[in-house]
Amino acid sequence: MLSNSSKYALKAVLYLAIHTSSENKILARDLASLINVPPAYIAKLLQELVRKNLAHSEKGPHGGFYLDELNKNEPVINFIYAIDGEDKLNSCLLGLSHCNHLNPCPLHHLANPMRDALLNNLKHKCINDLVIDIKNGKSSLPL
Amino acid sequence: MLSNSSKYALKAVLYLAIHTSSENKILARDLASLINVPPAYIAKLLQELVRKNLAHSEKGPHGGFYLDELNKNEPVINFIYAIDGEDKLNSCLLGLSHCNHLNPCPLHHLANPMRDALLNNLKHKCINDLVIDIKNGKSSLPL
DNA sequence: TTATAAAAAGATAAAAAAATCTTTATATAT
DNA sequence: ATATATAAAGATTTTTTTATCTTTTTATAA
Q1: DSSP letters spanning A25-91
Q2: Which CATH number does the domain housing residue B17 bear?
Q3: How far is the CA of B25 from the C1' of D7 (A)?
Q4: Taking the complete model, does pTM exceed 0.90, yes or no?
Q5: What is the extent of the structural domain holding B41?
Q6: Number of domains in chain B
């Protein structure tokens, strides 16, 4: 469903959303150990998010990664799209390019309503919504 | 979501369900070209399904692969489990081993209802149910 | 201005998944 | 019996994904 890369990126982003701001950054290597992801790997993923304006970074002493308020209000799906591309979540379950609602594949009716509902949630929930759940005890870390 | 291998296997199984029986087998290489899957690859996958009693084969002249009535009545999910293993569809979206309904990860509420509904469909629909849809024009090939 | 601390970029390596090739076993027909 | 057609099994190759390592750039502070 999600690649390792997307999973790691989401874990990182959740951590950043809870614990960082422009005044309070975190080093890639510290973040890595806190969310159980290889340090060099998470650094790469964060660089990609920064390039796509889904996270921020500063170089040099007292530098590090953080999320600003705009980032925290991005829909969850944007982070997945940034790392995995759009096709991964949107393509036909059987990999058929012709499959759509007018020309449904044999698994379409069985799976698409759920997929659409999931995509809808991912599009309408932002990172901050997930953080609110965590703070209300509706979901939990650690990552 | 599904590996290439599972997608290929499901396409093969659907074809076999519609077009084969113990009196009417098909060669791996013929099936391969009909469903657009590499011949050596589909042969391997079918061998795995045969080993797990989800399909049948006969060697030698007039041999080939086919599904019997029991196979056609297997739930769709069994073919996926046979190829991808059970974990792939059941593990936490973020890959967290501790995640469950009592200790939900931040994506759990957002995704699990849909995943459960999908799994339920895959468990309760058998291959023949999909074939009936195709025959009624509710879904369509080619594969 | 120099040293240092950090991310960015790019190159490389390792592991897993996808795909193919070769050999063996088995059934059928001649 | 022998030749042939097929799946089964196993080995190998290729591609993709995952992960790491090295070098460069940039910002800070002494």
Answers
A1: -B-HHHHHHHHT--HHHHHHHHHHHHHTTSSEEE-STT-EEE--HHHHTSBHHHHHHHHH-SHHHHS
A2: 1.10.10.10
A3: 12
A4: yes
A5: 4-135
A6: 1
